[in-house]
Amino acid sequence: MSLFNVMSVSASGMAAQRERAQVVVENLANAETTRTPEGGPYRRRDVVFESAAQDSPFAAVFQSEMTAGNLGVEVGEVRADSRDPDMRYQPGHPHADARGYVAYPRINPAEEMVDLMGATRGYQANVAAFSAVKDMISKSIELMK
Question: What is this structure's pTM?
Answer without folding.
Answer: 0.81
